[in-house]
Backbone:
């Protein structure tokens, strides 16, 4: 497919008019649209405010991210400055990040699409005006950061916003119906749907990628793995822990949050080390292990961390199975 005729003059202008302050500002803004940023925000909501909302927001952003991978592989539009061969000079990101991004397609912007799916759902769920303002600003700043840093066309962001808002609208309008349909499935069926859906998504992205297993299909596995981990852990948490996120005081909530993040980071670091032990030729095994890594991270956040901090008195729990 031929590259889409997007406005390169805008990208050249932004690249030639950066300042140190704005570059650092937009690097921080773009982090909010990374996987790590959503983990930090959703985990805070989960351990300190509203478990159901945190799970719903996580589902929405993971589904939007998965859809984004599929769309990128269909459109196959290279990122700006990649065809020209000067992206190392024109992108305001680290060389390591640049090498990874250059191997991925551009349209639509995953950051813009995920933000436009995640933050409207958050906006709808909060009543305080300042939180709603923050949600709107997050959508705008995350989107703007991508062309400013040189890694996306402005058109990528506009398309990402439009599709992400559509995902958010579906998530808001049909949330109750989707929840009701999901609850009709047994636990085994729920896990089966999550795993089978993840594998189907992975196979679809491999087919769209010209039957090449590495690259963006691996991103789809990360999203699918995290989603499977949440599906596996959520019913267990309700039945065996069922902690109250509003219980105890602010210091206890902060400790819960720090403990959850530390356990998740430790899981990713240890599993990342283990992944490095897989021989280079076993690409299929390495990819499937990536699914398990992110499934483990989701399981830790949703179930194991709450199980621990209820055992050590950092939260009150009322297991549904008791």
Residues:
């Amino acid at each position: 497919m031929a590259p889409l005729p997007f406005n390169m003059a805008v990208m050249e202008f932004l690249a030639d008019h950066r300042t140190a302050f704005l570059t650092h500002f937009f690097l921080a803004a773009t982090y909010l649209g990374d996987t790590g940023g959503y983990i930090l925000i959703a985990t805070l909501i989960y351990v300190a405010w509203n478990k159901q909302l945190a799970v719903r927001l996580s589902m929405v952003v993971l589904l939007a991210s998965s859809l984004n991978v599929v769309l990128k592989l269909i459109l196959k539009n290279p990122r700006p400055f990649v065809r020209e061969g000067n992206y190392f000079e024109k992108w305001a990101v680290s060389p390591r990040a640049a090498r990874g991004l250059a191997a991925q397609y551009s349209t639509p912007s995953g950051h813009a699409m995920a933000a436009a799916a995640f933050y409207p759902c958050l906006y709808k769920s909060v009543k305080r005006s300042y939180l709603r303002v923050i949600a709107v600003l997050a959508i705008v700043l995350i989107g703007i950061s991508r062309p400013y840093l040189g890694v996306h066309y402005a058109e990528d962001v506009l398309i990402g916003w439009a599709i992400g808002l559509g995902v958010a609208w579906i998530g808001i309008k049909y949330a109750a119906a989707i929840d009701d349909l999901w609850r009709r499935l047994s636990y085994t069926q729920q896990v089966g749907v999550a795993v089978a859906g993840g594998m189907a998504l992975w196979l679809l992205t491999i087919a769209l990628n010209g039957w090449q297993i590495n690259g963006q299909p691996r991103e789809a596995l990360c999203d699918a793995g995290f989603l499977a981990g949440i599906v596996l852990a959520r019913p267990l948490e309700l039945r065996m822990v069922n902690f109250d996120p509003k219980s105890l005081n602010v210091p206890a909530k902060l400790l819960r949050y720090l403990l959850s993040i530390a356990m998740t980071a430790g899981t990713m670091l240890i599993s990342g080390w283990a992944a490095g032990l897989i021989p280079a030729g076993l690409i299929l095994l390495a990819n499937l292990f990536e699914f398990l890594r992110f499934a483990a991270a989701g399981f830790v956040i949703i179930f194991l961390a709450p199980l621990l901090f209820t055992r050590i008195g950092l939260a009150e729990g009322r297991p549904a199975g008791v």
In short: Residues 1-175 form one domain. The mean pLDDT is 94.
